[in-house]
Amino acid sequence: RRDVLVLTPWLAPIVWEGTFSRDILNAQYLQKNLVTGVVTFAVEKYWFFIEGFMTSANKYFLAGHHVNFYLFTDSPEKIPPLQLSPENQLFVIPVHNDSRWQDIPSCRMAIISCYIQSWFRHEVDYLYSLDIDLQLLAHVGVEIIDALVATISSWQVTPQHRDKAYGTRSGSPAATPEGQFYYTASFYGGSVAEVYELTRACSRGVMQDREKGLGAGGQHERHLNKYLLQHRPTRLLSPEYYWDTEL
C-alpha cells in the first residue's frame, strides 16, 4: 500500500489491511507453539458488554490459535453462557470494591502488572489488553504479534479531533508533545515481559499524579503514551484495529 504510512521513523512497521500475508504469518506462528492472553475489564455497568465482546473475540481474535481470555469483573454471576472454540479458554477473575481496587478504571495498569507477576507470565507468551466494549468485526490475526505493540488512536488521524487526543494536564508527567503518534489505551500489548514493564511504569505514574492532585480521567492512556514515547513500540497497529464509533 502506498496510500498510508507503513513505517515509523524508528523503522517499526505500521500494520494496515493489505500490508501482510496472514497465511505466511499463521504458518510461522504455529511453529512456535505460542499462547496469547487477552485481559479485559467488565465492572459496574460494563458487564452488559461481556457477551458481545466474548462472542466476537472468540470468532475473530487469533482464530485457530490458543488464546486465554482473562476477564476481570465485579459481576461474575451476570456472565451469560458462552460457547468458546476448543483452543480458547476463559478465566473469570472477580474484583471487589475494596480498599485495594477502589477505582478499577485508573487502577487497571496496577492490576495487570500484579497478575502478570503472579499468574499470567506462567501461562502466556504474549498479552494484550482490550476494552470490554470493543466489538471485533473482522479477523485480528498474528500480524499483531510483536514485542511491544500499540494502536494509533483514530482521533489522531482526524485533524478536527486532535485536541481530544493530545489534551492533557501540563503538570502531569504523562504530557505528550504534539506531532508524535498518539496511542489508544483500548488496545495494546506485546510480550509478557514488555507489557509487565509498561503497566508497572504506568501504574507508578498514576500514583504520582494522585499525589499531586492530578486525578482526572484517562490517566492510564496518558501514561501509556508517555511510556511509549520513551520506549518505542516495535509494531504499530493502524486505526483500523480500533476505530472510535464517535467518529
From TrEMBL:
Q: Which UniProt keywords apply?
A: Glycosyltransferase, Manganese, Metal-binding, Transferase
The entry's free-text remark on the cofactor is: Binds 1 Mn(2+) ion per subunit.
- Annotated GO biological process: carbohydrate metabolic process
Q: Which domain of life does the UniProt lineage start with?
A: Eukaryota
Q: Which cofactor does it need?
A: Mn(2+)
Provide any one GO MF term from the record. Answer: metal ion binding
**Active site positions:** E221
Query: Is ATP-binding included in the keywords of this UniProt record?
Result: no
Q: Where does the chain bind an alpha-L-fucosyl-(1->2)-beta-D-galactosyl derivative?
A: E221, D244
List positions binding Mn(2+): D131, D133
The entry's cellular-component GO terms read: Golgi apparatus; membrane; vesicle
Membrane topology term reads: Single-pass type II membrane protein
Q: What is this protein called?
A: BGAT2 transferase
